[in-house]
Amino acid sequence: MRVKVLFFGLVRGVAGLADEEVEVPGGTTVGGLWGGYERRFPRLREAAGSVFFAVNQEVADRAQALKDGDEVAFMPPVSGGCAARAPAAGG
Amino acid sequence: MRRSSAGGWRLTDKLKMETCDGQFEITRQPIASREIAERLKAPRDGAVVVFEGIVRDHSGDRRTLYLEYEAYEPLALRQMAEIGRQARERFGIDRVAMVHRIGRLEIGEVSVAIVVVSAHRRAAFEACQYSIDRLKQVVPIWKKEFFEGGAVWAEGEAQSRVLAKMV
Which residue of chain A has the CA closest to B133? Predict the structure, then answer.
């Protein structure tokens, strides 16, 4: 089956991908899909503890099984608004 | 009040949503808070509270040149609408508008605006504070800071579990 994968923020930066369509085996979960990208882009492992997921524009967990045509998003912690701290700058 | 019969909300276009709780928008254009307030307020309201988040010229001791924001737009709109629903339920306000700008923003420009209209000021202040705090925790928008010699993605204030709990 085919799914569409979206990458945001730091995750997009690390993977060097904004989006792509991929063929995955039936029964693949969100976590399984992410694991495949970790193998492809090992630096993604650094983000693994804080990344969160959406399937078809709803927040999803790693265990969720994917269906053909799903849209999956990989998202780092959010930083919208006006005054979030930058890393290592100490606020 | 516009409310669809099916889900209680409707997408007015790809980047806007209107619900009975208010108006929610992701935009690439400058944010005009005054116009939003004019659009939102009704004769039953006695208070308008406007919050604008603006781009600061520094982050810690580093000088910022400009920022770029990106959003997962459909999910961001839904999260904003959910915050609006919660704000209305908790504080008894009339309505709230939440607008976040994406793309490149220069120092001093408005990145986010929260406008709350209410019969009374106390509820409006509280709902406004609540709404911006929640936005920064759970709305999928990311900020990249550009400074002399480089750029960095800002770290979020909250981790994914906060968002997962909300929806």
Answer: A81
